[in-house]
Specification:
This protein is an alpha/beta fold. The protein has one domain (11-275). It has helices at 3-6, 10-49, 52-76, 107-112, 133-138, 147-159, 184-192, 238-253, 269-275; strands at residues 80-83, 97-100, 118-122, 142-143, 163-165, 196-203, 222-232. It has a seven-stranded mixed beta sheet, sandwiched between helices. Strand 3 (118-122), helix 5 (133-138) and strand 4 form a beta-alpha-beta unit. Helix 2 runs antiparallel to helix 3 (52-76) and helix 7 packs across helix 8. The longest helix has 40 residues, at 10-49.
């Protein structure tokens, strides 16, 4: 047994750091709740009085501001380290599908914090959430519960010049480094005739990944790095393209092993065979 771990001088530091991690966890949750509820007080009346041509830009600008405040707060107290600067080069670009991998719940917030002209495809239950629903409606985000309507709205947003955030996996990663990709991304890109910009979100923690309880304390600080990948032309064949996209994500994410969480779920069985 390592004597250093049991030395009297190390124990206070370990307990103090653990207390700090609990503080940072609750501070982050409280900060997100406060920012979300405060914006909701404004978003509800604005949603009912503003025409859509004004509501969408106002809602998306506010979403970028709120997510920047939240992520900035986490960085300020040392809970997280964010490297998101590569996203800034996309801000002045024309319509694009932004397609990241999806390791945790913070992924969408990181992208939205840097790109203010962003339409998002999000879970339908977010629209009924007291913290997030009003802001999502005001920003013109797209529900994912009606496939045909979702695709039509997504294509319309892209043709109007917006960026579109969609996770090719469809849900948070459960099979590292990426789940089986869905064909929705390729289908929307093909119909809208816009390119797909791949984005890689890398982290050294499994915090808020699929199955991580909201109140479970992570080891801090947590590092997040976002880097841009290849930009694909609008595909002609959605099925073939989706398989190529998944393979590309696997190859690229495996090149950054020091950013893969040690507790990340690994591919097993058929999934492992497919990735070799």
């Amino acid at each position: 047994m390592n004597a250093t771990l049991l030395s009297p001088s190390s124990l206070p530091r370990r307990w103090l750091h653990r207390l700090y991690e609990y503080f940072a966890l609750w501070f982050g949750l409280g900060l997100l709740g406060t920012i979300s509820l405060t914006w909701t007080l404004f978003a509800v009346p604005l949603y009912h009085v503003l025409p859509k041509r004004w509501a969408d830009p106002v809602g998306r600008w506010a979403a970028t501001l709120c997510t920047r405040l939240y992520l900035g707060g986490l960085a300020l107290i040392g809970a997280c380290r964010f490297d998101l600067t590569e996203l800034d080069s996309l801000r002045a670009e024309g319509p694009l599908i932004i397609a990241p991998n999806h390791p945790c719940l913070l992924d969408a917030l990181m992208v939205i914090s840097r790109l203010p002209n962003m339409a998002c495809i999000i879970k339908a239950d977010i629209f009924d959430n007291v913290f997030l629903g009003a802001g999502a409606r005001l920003a013109g985000y797209i529900r994912n519960d009606a496939q045909l309507s979702m695709i039509k709205q997504a294509v319309a947003e892209l043709k109007n010049g917006s960026h579109l955030l969609i996770f090719p996996e469809g849900t948070r990663t459960t099979r590292w480094p990426i789940n089986t990709c869905k064909g929705t991304t390729a289908l929307i890109a093909s119909r809208a005739r816009v390119p797909i910009q791949t984005v890689f979100i890398e982290t050294d923690s499994g915090y808020l990944g699929k199955g991580w309880p909201l109140f479970r304390r992570p080891t801090m600080p947590i590092t997040y790095r976002v880097r841009l990948g290849r930009r694909f032309a609008p595909p002609e064949k959605a099925g073939t393209f989706t398989e190529d996209l998944e393979r590309y994500f696997i190859d690229e994410l495996r090149d950054a092993p020091h950013f893969l969480p040690s507790d990340a779920p690994q591919a097993t069985g058929a999934g492992a065979a497919r990735q070799t």
